[in-house]
Every structure is written in C-alpha cells, then in structure tokens.
Design a protein that fits this description.
The chain is mainly β. The chain has one domain: Beta Barrel (Maltoporin, Chain A), CATH 2.40.170. The chain has eight helices and 41 strands. It is globular and about 75 Å long. The N terminus is likely disordered.
Length: about 800
C-alpha cells in the first residue's frame, strides 16, 4: 500500500502554521506575566443534556455515559439517546460501517457534519471519500464526549455538509498521574477486545511548564451473529501493520479492528501544544441486505432456504450457484440472493493533527491546527453476473479499491472587548482542505466456478471505473457574541463563506455511462470540473436568562450542502452531457432552520423543550436528465423542497439515594413539498411525492434510562422506541396510494452493571462490568437505505437489527 500522494502540500501547510505558532510564541514571551495558566486553554466544555447556555438546540453525552456501554461501542451509537437523533446499525457496537446510518430532523447521513477535536470527519458514507467514521478516528475508550447540535453547527465548524446539524466528538486528555490500564472484554459470537493504555502523567519543569501524554493499543475480534464470513479474497499486496489477519488473542475474527492512539500535551507558560496520532486497521464481514418481503419471510421458498430476518450470505457454494443459475423456480428474486459469504470491507487509516493554542494578550487568543489523513481500503464481493456476456460464469469476483489523502489546516482568533456596557467576543477563523480521493473497481474471474469461489487474479474481466477527485474546500467566518442587560441577554451573530472546487479525472477505461467496459477498451472519460459557491451564510442566535433557573433561546441560520462529489457514485458518475446539464442548472441544497426553546433547572431536575421549523430547498435526487431520444445515465437534479417541523424534549433528574433518570422525546414531521418529474423532458414521468413523508425519518422517538450508583455498584437500564419509518418517496410499496412503503416501529432495551472492587495489592483499581444489548431480543429492521431508495418498490435495502448479546469486561489500573 502506498502513502505517497501529497506530502509537499501538507508540508507547506505545516510550515505556514509553524510561522503563526512562532509569532504567537514570541508574543507570549513578551507578556507572560499577564495571562492564565496553559492548563485552562484546552478544557472541553460539555453542554449537558439540555445544552444550557447555548443559543441553539444542543445536547451531549460524556465519558461516564460512554463507559456504560460495552467497551468498543462507537460513540455514534451512544448518541441515539439524544433527542432528534435516529441512529441505526446492525451490530450492537455500532462498528459495522456499511450499516451505520444517522438521521436528524429528516436529514440523511450525508447531510450531517461530524468532527473530532475540530477535525472534519466527512459525510460518514461507507465508501467515505472525504473522511472516516468516528470508530476509525479514535479508540472509543479515548473519547471524552460527543455533543450534538441538531439544527445547525457553529459557524466555525469544519464541515461542508452540515445541512442538518453537527456531531462533535472530543478526545480525552492524558491523565494527570502515571498509570497503566488494561481492559479485557469477552462475549457472545466470539467477541473479544483487549485494550492497553499507558499515561505518562503530568511532568512539570521550569515553573508552569509541563508535558503529559498517553499511548493506547486495542484489538477487537468477533464473529457475525448470523451467517458466516470466511474470506476467500486474499488480494495480492495486502499488508498488516500490526496483527491484522493473524489475530491477537484466539486468532482473527470474521470482523476485526485494531487501533493505536497517541496524544501528547506540551504546556509552555500560557501556551498549549497538542499532538495526536491515530492508526486504525479493520476488516468487517458483511451482512446480507434484505428486501421487506424476504425479512417478513413471505418470499416463495422461504422455509427451504431460511428467508426471514436471519437470512444471510450462503455458506454453501453449491447453493449460491443454484441461485445464480436461476435454477430454483419457487423463488422470484433468484440472482439477487446468489451471494457467497466472502463479502467484506477493509480499511486502513492514519490520522494526525498538531494544535497550538496561545494567548498573545490578556484579551486575545489564537488557535492553529494542521491535520493529515491517509486512507486505503477495499471491498470484496462474490457477486452474480446477471447474465452479462463479459463473464463466462454466473458468479464473478469484484473489488472496490479506495485511496484518499487529505490535508488541511484550521485557524481562529478571538478577542474580547467592551463597548459601553456591552461586552463582546469577536471570533474570526477559517478552514482549508485539500483532498485527493480515488476509487477503482475491477472484476476478476474464478479459478474454477464449478468447484469453488477461489479467485484467479490473472483473469481480469472488466474495469468498471478508475477515477480520482481533487477537491479543495475553503471556508472563512466571522462571529461576534454580545452580552448585555447585565449579562442576561447573549446575542451571537455572524456569517461564513464556503467554496468547494472539484476536479475529476479518469485514470482508467471508465465508460461515459458509468457502467462497465472491457479492460483494454479505449473509452476514457474526459476530465471535468465543478465549483460550488455557497455564498454568504448568516446565522444569529440569542439566549435570555429569565432568572437563575430558567432561560429562553432562539437560533436562525442559513446552511448549504456541497454537491455529491464522491468519484464513484457522485456527479462524475454520469454521462458527460448529463454532467454539463447538472453543472449549468443545479443549485446546492440549502436549509433554513428556525428553532426556539426553553430550559429550566430546579434543584436536581433539569429539562428542555425545543420547537423548530426547517425550510429545506433545492433537494438533489438522481433523475434522468436527457431527452427520450438520447440514451444516457441518470444524473442529479433539483426536485423541490422539504417542509419540516417538530418538537424535542429532554429531562434529567437526580432522584436521590443513588438513582438518576433521563428521558428524551421527539416528534418530527418531514414532508416533501412538491411532486417531481423523474425525467424533466417527459411530462408523463410525474412522481407524486407532495405531502409524503421523507424516508427514514420516524415521527416519534422516545428514550428513557434509569441509573443507580451506590458505593461500588453501578446499574443502568435503558429503553428506546423508534416509530414507523417510510422507505419510498411516494410512501407506497406496490401500487399508487397503498401507503405500505414503511416498516413498523420497535422497542429495544439495554442493561449494564459495573462493580468496582477497588485496590488489590499492586492493582490500583479493579472493575467488573456486564452488558446486555437488546435485552428482550427484539426482531426489527434497523438500517434502511443500504441499497438506496426509490419512488416505489421493494428493494434489498434493509438490515436486521442485532439480537440479544451479552458481554463481560474486566478493567484494571496499575
């Protein structure tokens, strides 16, 4: 694997950042006696369950909540308890990236921004071209908090797709004392996780100067909870930096994930320097995407072939061949079930950043943060050929190869000043990122189709595509916060400007319609460019303290989403004429949310209520953009608006005697504003979507938990209800007006128990923890949209939620 794309560009960014750091350091030396200690500079602010003090709807889960879950559980899954958040995954850990989906207030995964310590994580798509999932960005054990702003992110958020809110993760700081932590988890389906972390402690020198750091290493292995995941695709050139496919304890599981984290802080007077490095290497074995009929076991032949929620990839090669050859007449979706159990995805990531925080004067502050992300990956699949002439066998082997190099820098400066009786804090900042993302998909024949699935890598059948997108993102913002009326009223107002430029190029023999082509065919695609000018995006918010217990808030903003720029499935995956039509006519998606709310805190009780409305326009959808007499691929086009309104409530109470209760409730109505033409040149292609509910946007969601802590024992019981969700644009399944294009609601519950034995000999602390996910073993559809959405019909686009799973963990500190 090569990690060689653009080191010179990152070096330039680092050099520019270093000049800024040097300048600020010199200013620090001149005014060292006027400032606070450096330890206060990098403190993470937790907004709590109600987001008290924020001018927008916000809520957070901290490390204590994260630790209630089984070790290794992604923070992405934990935020499902936040009002307005619908998170879906197939496994109890939230690690299986193909299935991970998050929607908020009717917006889909790719329309929600995510950052970690300010670093952009991209749109969280499976073939993530502009970032990575939080599980690959940092070990879950090293997270301090996850904060959600459901309506809009702050102006300085480094994201080009935060149309519908932002999730911001913060990594934990190194411990102040020297210690070594060892954690071992084991559970059902051969799940096991080993985590080791060493904290250097805080070492001081020269008065207020000091250094602290930690290093951690973890390895997770587990088998799928249904089907099988034996891997037959030993693609040449694969590497393992640590244990890889060789495994750690007990050998490699069907799914495995290993991670190395390093974090160090250097305090020099009032300045703080932070260095962070993350290495992640993983392989996940896939679960089968199901249609609704297969999930409900209504397909003919279901009793013979095990259709239903537990249906998965075939472990028998002979059975897979039968389906691929369409030799089972009782089943109507023959070839779409002809998948062998080799399907898996692999990713390797290196993520690093440097951050400098300074206080040049008593009233000013400067932050500079360059970062680098390198990603390599592949997705393997024994897939049916659907009778294609280029494949001599009904089943072939396909691999999607990912390669991305991102580098960027963020900077901001703040200054506080008074204008009469009004105190102000002015903030100016910017973000710049360069991203080179490539995607390649070759297909190979098999050694002997009749005998088995072994792949002949010398037998190339096709190259679907081989593309690269060079994307540069520039963002600048200015914001002021004014406090007046004796600090009772806080106004936050400002604007940002976002510009995204993309240059696409074809590296191989990709055809103009984005489908398949012979490996040596001369059908190259031209290089194409696209610019997205987001314009000026204003934002204004207010918080009014009625009294010491109650406050009111309101926020209004204008948000924009970058165009679909994934080199594999975005706008470059169209005919050239379609691309030109899109470039000349399409407008970027925009949303204008308005939210108002109230928060109260009375003794041990804290609660909040938010009402919101969103004007979402220029919705982009894949449509046919060619005259009927011209054959070309589908493209993207603006198809109207979405009207959203809703209520969100959150409640947290200390009940005394060690009991604490928390609950959240959500009501959301997201409906399409207009009908649209699936082919703008054909008036008979009208799709009736007006006043239909948006897909995967439940109207009701509830979450409640009860926790008990007494001396050494901690118990937690939580339950979550997700209402019915539509999965077609027309809300119909088979015929117009049937209203059957939806899945029922469900309830899942989790329980955890932790007992702290304390110090035993050389062991400073010993903890035992038991977790049970989906305690009542509910069978339900979790993820939808894995295979996309359509106006009407039953696609294999659903994934079954994980069954009940038990995990036991031992944690020690030396």
């Amino acid at each position: 694997m090569r990690f060689d794309s653009r080191p010179s560009q990152f070096a330039l960014l680092s050099a520019a950042s270093s000049l800024l750091l040097l300048s600020a350091t010199r200013a620090n030396a001149q005014q060292a006696g006027q400032r606070d200690t450096a330890q206060a500079l990098g403190k993470v602010v937790i907004t709590g369950v109600t987001g008290r003090g924020s001018a927008r709807a916000a809520s957070a889960v901290d490390s204590s909540i994260l630790k209630q879950n089984a070790p290794g559980t992604s923070a992405l899954k934990v935020i499902e308890r936040v009002p307005g958040v619908n998170m879906q995954s197939v496994d109890g850990f939230g690690m299986y990236e193909w299935s991970n989906r998050i929607t908020m207030r009717g917006f889909q995964t790719g329309q929600i921004g995510q950052t970690m310590d300010g670093i952009p994580l991209g749109d969280m798509s499976y073939g993530n071209w502009n970032g990575l999932g939080i599980g690959r960005a940092v070990d879950a054990a090293n997270l301090e908090s996850a904060a959600v702003t459901q309506g809009t992110g702050a102006l300085g958020t480094a994201s080009a797709n935060n149309l519908g809110g932002v999730v911001q993760y913060a990594t934990a700081e190194p411990a102040g004392k020297r210690q070594f932590t060892l954690q071992q988890m084991g559970g059902q389906y051969a799940a096991r996780r080993t985590m080791m972390r060493y904290d250097l402690g805080l070492t001081t020198f020269g008065g207020s100067n000091g250094v602290s750091a930690f290093a951690s290493l973890s390895r997770f292995d587990g088998d799928k909870w249904k089907g099988g995941g034996n891997r037959f695709s030993n693609f040449p050139g694969e590497q393992n930096l640590l244990f890889g496919q060789g495994g750690f304890l007990g050998g490699a599981g069907e799914t495995w994930h290993e991670q190395l984290n390093l974090k160090a802080n250097l305090f020099l007077g009032s300045s703080k320097f932070t260095a962070f490095y993350n290495y992640a290497n993983r392989k996940e074995s896939d679960y089968m995407d199901l249609s609704l009929s297969v999930f409900n076991s209504t397909a003919p032949g279901s009793s013979t072939y095990g259709f239903g929620p537990m249906f998965d990839y075939f472990t028998s090669w002979n059975t897979a061949k039968q389906f691929a050859e369409a030799s089972i007449p009782t089943y109507t979706e023959l070839t779409d079930a002809a998948y062998f159990n080799s399907a898996q995805g692999a990713r390797m990531d290196h993520l690093a950043y440097l951050k400098g925080e300074f206080k040049p004067t008593a009233t000013t502050r400067l932050e500079v943060q360059p970062y680098l992300h390198l990603n390599r990956g592949g997705g393997d699949w024994h897939a049916p050929s659907y009778g294609a002439a280029y494949s001599p066998d009904p089943i072939m082997f396909r691999q999607t190869q990912y390669n991305a190099n991102r580098s960027g820098v963020m900077a901001k400066g703040t200054a506080t000043f008074d204008l009469g009786s009004v105190s102000n804090q002015l903030e100016v900042g910017g973000w710049y990122e360069m991203n080179e993302s490539s995607n390649r998909r070759p297909r190979w024949g098999l050694v002997n189709y009749q005998q088995g699935p072994e792949v002949n890598y010398d037998r190339v059948l096709r190259l679907d595509y081989d593309r690269t997108a060079d994307v540069t993102t520039s963002m600048a913002y200015v914001q002021n916060t004014s406090r007046l009326l004796d600090q009772r009223l806080t106004l936050t107002y400002g604007a940002k400007y976002l510009l995204v430029n993309a240059d696409f190029r074809n590296n191989g023999n990709t055809p103009t319609n984005g489908k398949v082509a012979p490996i040596f065919a001369d059908q190259g695609r031209p290089s194409l460019s696209l610019e997205m000018d987001g314009g000026l995006l204003p934002q204004v918010g207010a918080v009014f303290k009625v009294n010491s217990n109650n406050e009111l808030f309101a926020n209004w903003s204008e948000n924009v989403n970058q165009f679909p720029l994934n080199p594999a499935g975005g706008v470059y995956n169209t005919a050239v004429s379609t691309f030109d039509f899109f470039k000349n006519t399409a407008k970027p998606e925009r949303a204008t949310p308005l939210e108002v709310g109230a928060r109260t805190r009375r003794g041990a009780v804290e609660a909040g209520l938010t009402a919101y409305t969103i004007d979402y326009r220029n919705r982009l959808l894949g449509v046919a953009l060619c005259p009927q007499t011209v054959t070309c691929a589908s493209g993207f086009g603006n198809v109207g608006s979405v009207n959203t309104m809703g209520l969100e409530g959150v409640f947290n109470a200390d009940l005394g005697r060690g009991f604490r209760a928390q609950a959240s409730a959500t009501f959301n109505s997201s409906k399409f504003g207009e009908d649209y033409l699936s082919n703008p040149t054909n008036p008979n292609s009208l799709v009736n979507t007006k006043d239909k509910f948006v897909q995967d946007a439940p109207q009701q969601m509830l979450h409640a938990s009860l926790a008990y802590t007494r001396r050494k024992l901690s118990l937690s019981l939580g339950g979550r209800y997700v209402g019915e969700r539509y999965f077609t644009y027309t809300n119909d399944l088979a015929t117009a007006g049937d209203g059957a294009g939806k899945v029922p609601g469900y309830v899942v519950s989790d329980v955890s128990a932790r007992y702290r034995l304390g110090a035993i000999g050389a062991v400073k602390s010993l903890e035992l923890q038991l977790n049970a996910n989906n305690l009542l073993d509910e069978r339900y559809i979790a993820t939808m949209g894995s295979g996309g959405f359509v106006a009407r019909g039953d696609l294999p686009t659903f994934l079954t939620g994980a069954p009940r799973q038990l995990f036991f963990t031992v944690s020690t500190t030396f």
